[in-house]
Amino acid sequence: MPIYVWTFAGAIFLIIIIVILNILQEYRNVKLAKRFDNFSLKSYNEHESSFFDEFSKKLNNFIQKLSKILKKSHVLNDYSKHYEKYIEYSLKNQKECIDYVTIKFLLGFLFVILNIIAVVFKLKQINPISYLITFIIGFFVLDIALIINYNKKRHDVEGDLLKAIIIMNNSFKSGKNIIQAISTVKNELDGPIADEFKRIYLDITYGLSLEVVFERFYERIKLEDAKYIASSLTLLNKTGGNIVKVFSTIEKSFFNKKRMYDELNSLTSSSIFVYRILVFMPIAFTLIILILNPTYFNPLFNNPLGIILLLLILILYITYIITIKKVLKVKI
User: Fold this and answer.
1) What pTM, to 2 d.p., does this model score?
2) Are 174 and 232 found together in one domain?
3) What is the number of domains present in the chain?
4) 3-state SS, residue 99
5) Per the domain annotation, does 39 fall within a domain?
6) Where is average pLDDT lowest: 5-14, 27-36, 62-71, 309-318?
7) Same domain, 200 and 231
8) Which residues of 14-47 are buried (b: 16+ CB within 10 A; e: fewer)?
9) Which domain holds residue 133?
């Protein structure tokens, strides 16, 4: 093996060790600082920032500079609009949709660099196809994280939507108008539901109609309850009526739906628990076998029949997960 390869590998290893030691040192300093924060007085003129704060600022500045370059592409601009729903209201002045595309490219190149380092340490030949696959994996890692976070947000909004309707209905009963009721919700509640009602309040102040505002609310979170509210408000604006009675009906409907949903969940909780165990058991057994005997599955990968068998097992496993999930899914 050429000496420059060993030199490069040693330099990379040394840099990684230095970075890890610096991170551990900074983490220890931050941890100690937090322990003494409650027992010390700080000056109002204090503007000290930690290593992570400085690193975060420099990284954000770097991402914004790259985003300005990528923003010149109409294709990437159109593609970035898909990420608008992931931007939180509190960060709408700090983040743009194109920033997510920039982060995806950076993650793709980071995965490629890690792959190169792994190849150098393993002393293997360079395979361009593996680098392409690694870049694609890194490029879509952010999408997986955003989808998981988005689903969690939808679940939180769905759970707190009844609270928002109750607050709005009480506001209407006390003589407040729709804008004041929405303002009360965004001030009284917190979390994702407050963030969404801040967007609704902002849209109304810009002059958008109620049906358009709540339709946009539905498009962001894709909940049928939000669509039901949008349809009710649209009908109320076109035909007229008592808004207190309408929202009282909506509140009663949501309350009954939530109660039925909780009852059905309690009845199916044991089945869901068994389903999750059965889903993760094959993965757990496979990992245990690989730890005990890493070459146990080699005959399957070295034989065309074995590869076909693995694909068949994978298809059956995915079909099982989708089927059982649909059976156990509670719809009201």
Assistant:
1) 0.64
2) yes
3) 3
4) helix
5) no
6) 5-14
7) yes
8) eeeeeeeeeeeeeeeeeeeeeeeeeeeeeeeeee
9) 3-30+53-142
For residues 207 and 283, state if they share a domain.
Answer: no
Contact yes or no for 236/209 (Cβ under 8 A): no
Per residue in 149-163, pLDDT (tens digit) is 888 888 888 888 888
Single out the residue in 118, 142, 166 at which a domain terminates.
142
- Report yes or no on 47 lying in a domain: no
Name the more confident of 286 and 123. 286
Q: Which residues fall within 8 angstroms of residue 134, CB to CB, at 6 or more apart?
A: 108, 111, 112, 114, 115
Please check whether residues 115 and 22 belong to one and the same domain. Answer: yes
- Are 201 and 313 found together in one domain? no
Supply 39's token pair. 């027992």
Is the pLDDT at 8 greater than 60, yes or no?
Answer: no
List helix spans (H) across the chain.
Answer: 3-37, 51-70, 74-80, 97-122, 128-173, 178-188, 192-205, 210-221, 224-239, 243-292, 298-301, 304-328
The DSSP output letter for 85 is G
Are residues 100 and 216 both part of a single domain?
no
Helices 128-173 and 210-221: crossing angle in degrees, nearest 10, is 140
